Amino acid sequence: MIPVSEALDRLFALVSPLPTEEVRLTAALGRVLRSEVIATRDQPPFAASAMDGYAIREVDLAPGAVLRVTGEAAAGHAYAGHVGPGEALRIFTGAPVPEGAERVVMQEDTAREGDRITLGDGISDNRNIRPAGVDFRAGDKLVAPRRLAPADIALAASMNTDRLTVSRRPEVAIIATGDELVAPGGDPRPDQIIASNAYGLHGIVEQAGGTARLLPIAGDSMGALAQAFELARGADIVLTIGGASVGDHDLVGDAAAEAGMERAFWKVALRPGKPLMAGRFGAALLLGLPGNPVSSMVCAHVFLVPLIRALSGLPATPAPRRLARLAAPLAANGPREHYLRAASGPDGVTAFSKQDSSLLSVLSEADCLIVQPPGDRARDAGETVEVIAL
Ligand SMILES: Nc1nc2c(c(=O)[nH]1)N[C@H]1C(S)=C(S)[C@@H](COP(=O)(O)OP(=O)(O)OC[C@H]3O[C@@H](n4cnc5c(N)ncnc54)[C@H](O)[C@@H]3O)O[C@H]1N2
Ligand code: MOO
């Protein structure tokens, strides 16, 4: 068994970022930006009114002042003249503020009669003008790499770009293995169970920005596994589920080696997930997850998601952790780093009393994993622990 951090290092050592492609803005959500976006203009490109009202000179700002309205500026319709003393320009939000005007008085602070306005009392100090370039200047950058959130895409659009250079999405071929497995929705024999893990992993892959390809369930034979590996060709990550341990029917390691996997590690000091394996697999990477449903999902959060991120060109870093307060005590830990299914509440995080790695019902209730280091002493409520959000 090697520590989780060393396993991650060995995994990251196998990674080269995938090639890039260009996508339209509407296809960019969740993709990893690989080339910075450079603004081609200031935003706003002119000093813009932040309110509907009247643009005036500072010297004219006095309660009860009467000013003559000389024209109008609206968004997309600049006013060509300038605002002189004693004058006011009718202006709307987003319109360019004309020369001479130094502030915009909200229309609620004025009374209009014909072409005259009278300023009210208690006009706020706010000038209600957004200076040119206050958001960004020509030449400013949206920095890469980054996973594109809706606000990033809006910012890129605002910088006047309609296509973005992003990583090709990593393709993950998922192979469930085991003679006992049948697909959901069928009619299983009493000694069979439903193959559930691939569907949870499919979700994790898609959430992390990859594309998941579910292959047919492979039986516990070298031939069936060889065939599955053949079907997985072309994927960036080959993800197997089950058959990773030491039993007579746990053949994934042997079959993968026969199909050309160069092993980077097998067995990691984490709980659940000890029999995890990984290696180079031709042009792809292979990650062999344990079959227990919670083990496979926890290993995906701890290893697969960081792997997908690194392949996508993001920094190779472990799953982010935050500090949380324990709302209930924790027992002392054994020699493996323990990822306890837990729920957050107003008083902090509480580990579920049942932690068996077969319990999807518990994982489904959990919103985080408490990470307890190997050999950690018992912890009291109120102590601080590290957690990974689910
Ligand atoms: N003698 C030992 N036995 C075991 C050890 C050990 O160190 N020595 N480790 C245990 C640990 S820890 C784990 S984790 C499991 C993992 O074993 P495998 O990866 O070989 O998993 P399987 O035996 O194939 O399956 C375990 C369990 O999960 C069910 N399963 C498998 N695939 C799926 C799927 N796609 N969907 C739903 N459920 C699945 C399978 O039916 C088994 O019940 O080994 C321990 N044993
Ligand atoms: O490590 Mo196994 O994943 O405990 O259940």
Index terms:
alpha+beta, metal-binding, Molybdopterin biosynthesis moeA protein, domain 3, binds ligand LQZAQKY5, 18% helix, six-stranded mixed β-sheet, single chain, Molybdenum Cofactor Biosythetic Enzyme, Chain A, binds molybdate ion, elongated, 390 residues, 30% strand, transferase, 4 domains, MoeA_linker/N_sf, MoeA_C_domain_IV
Number of helices: 7
CATH class of the largest domain: Alpha Beta
Distance between the termini: 25 Å
CATH architecture descriptor text of the largest domain: 3-Layer(aba) Sandwich
Determine the fraction of residues in helical runs and give it as a percent range.
10-25%
Total strand count, please? 28
Point out poorly predicted stretches: none
Secondary-structure-based class equals alpha+beta
Assign the CATH superfamily of the largest domain: MoaB/Mog-like domain
Q: How would you sum up the global shape?
A: elongated
Strand content: 25-35%
Tell me the strand order in the biggest sheet: 8-5-7-6-10-9
Main beta-sheet strand count, sense and barrel state: 6 strands, mixed
Small-molecule binders here are: ligand LQZAQKY5, molybdate ion
Mean pLDDT: 97
Radius of gyration: 30 Å
- Could you say what the CATH topology of the largest domain is called? Molybdenum Cofactor Biosythetic Enzyme, Chain A
What count of domains describes the coordinates?
4
GO molecular function, one term: molybdopterin molybdotransferase activity
EC number: 2.10.1.1
Domain MoaB/Mog: 173-310
Enzyme class: transferase
